[in-house]
Design goal:
This protein is α+β, with helices and mostly antiparallel strands and 128 residues long. The protein contains two helices and seven strands. The strands form three sheets. It has a three-stranded antiparallel β-sheet, with helices on one face. A two-stranded antiparallel ribbon has the order 1-2. Strands 3-4 form a two-stranded antiparallel sheet.
Length: 128
Amino acid sequence: MKKQNILNRIHLDTSTDYLEDGKIYIYPCAYEAHKTAAPDTRCMQGSMMVLEDGTARFKPYHCGQRGSRYAVAYSTDFGCVRTTKKDIIVTFRYPKRFGPHLTSQALDEEADDIYDFLNSKKGGNVWS
């Protein structure tokens, strides 16, 4: 069983303080002290919704749990072709010490390599 599923099943009765500046403090009730949702202090990003009856729901964002957003399809010395589910992203990075003339020469060579790679994969489905 995953850790996230276990955390979703912990229910606590709480005391909630709503401050005028928008801050919300949530404390577990005294008789719920034996239950813990987190072993130590941590900051979680998410969205909180306060319903009309005064109950509040917090939904944490799922940051970094799905792995990398990009998959590297092809890379050269200074260029990289990355893919997402919808996009193909081509990036080039050159050090400043190259200067404009050497950078333009290297860009031409890298762009030709990446263009040849993309043309070789035109018929097949390499992006999945």
